[in-house]
Write a structure and sequence with these properties.
Radius of gyration of chain A: 10 Å
Strand content of chain A: 35-45%
Radius of gyration of chain B: 20 Å
Helix content of chain A: 10-25%
Mean pLDDT of chain B: 75
CATH superfamily of the largest domain in chain B: P-loop containing nucleotide triphosphate hydrolases
Largest sheet of chain B: 4 strands, antiparallel
Strand order of the largest sheet of chain A: 2-3
Structural class of chain A: mainly beta
Number of strands of chain A: 3
Shape of chain A: globular
CATH architecture of the largest domain in chain B: 3-Layer(aba) Sandwich
Order of helices and strands of chain B: EEEHEEHEHHHEH
CATH class of the largest domain in chain B: Alpha Beta
Order of helices and strands of chain A: EHEE
Oligomer: heterodimer
Distance between the termini of chain B: 31 Å
CATH topology of the largest domain in chain B: Rossmann fold
Helix content of chain B: 25-40%
Chain lengths: 34, 205
């Protein structure tokens, strides 16, 4: 999923944050309750 | 190829992308390192202009990096010919776009069917037409519902077209430009991502 909206990004298992063409943060995300 | 070589789906190593215009050199991506393993659900987020779309284009084999290496299934993408790239896009990669990219002149059914015909599958409509033709002089020849145009429907209804299209195509990998549908987020199946094949013409078919 590619998004500019962090609310959507949180639904993934892993989040990669891009800024200015670089990966600035990468995190395992807590599972979202179904 | 890394310690997770057998599981690695895609891996970027020092990927840069520079766009040149008359006087400006734009560094859209600078030394991107990342790896996504099979079955992972990964979000790539960032503000407008951070390089998301450039990255997506490279991952989807719609564009090539200026420098660095992209391994797809442990295979350097740079070694693929144009027709191999087209095959991978056709068979292994799916997109769903926020704007859906439905073709307005086609019905929903035809929109779903479109990527399948790109891969050489016979049109179901044509098959159905052939099957029903012998009975055409009798009754019940046109039991199909009237065609429903793909556009001019609610956003939610329009969304069913590309999602159905992606499901029909069943690509090995799926990538989404923008957000997933709520029901997909809830469905909890562990395979890769959300949705849909691009409607781009298959350059090598």
């Amino acid at each position: 999923m590619v998004t500019h909206d962090p609310r959507y990004a949180r639904h993934a298992e892993r989040g990669i944050h891009l800024f200015d063409g670089r990966i600035v943060d990468e995190a395992e995300l807590a599972a979202v309750a179904n | 190829m890394g310690q997770n070589g057998s599981e690695s789906l895609l891996k970027l190593d020092g990927v840069t992308k520079v766009f040149l215009t008359d006087e400006v050199e734009t560094h859209a991506l600078s030394g991107v390192q990342m790896e996504i393993r099979k079955g992972e659900y990964v979000s790539i987020a960032g503000p407008s202009g951070c390089g998301k779309s450039t990255l997506l284009s490279i991952l989807g084999l719609l564009d090539s990096p200026t420098n660095g290496q992209y391994l797809l299934n442990n295979r350097p993408v740079a070694t693929l010919s144009a027709s191999e790239r087209a095959r991978v896009r056709n068979r292994e990669i799916g997109f769903i776009f926020q704007s859906f990219n439905l073709i307005g002149d086609l019905t929903v059914f035809e929109n779903v069917e479109l990527p399948l015909t790109y891969r050489g599958m016979k049109s179901v409509g044509a098959q159905a037409a052939r099957r029903s033709r012998p009975r055409a002089s009798g009754h019940g020849a046109s039991s199909q519902a009237p065609p429903e145009p793909a556009l001019g429907r609610s956003a939610a209804a329009r969304g069913r077209g590309p999602r159905g299209r992606r499901r029909a195509a069943d690509p090995a990998r799926r990538r989404a430009d923008r957000e997933p549908r709520l029901e997909e987020r809830r469905s909890g199946h562990g395979s890769a991502q959300a949705n849909c094949t691009p409607a781009a013409p298959p350059s090598a078919w």
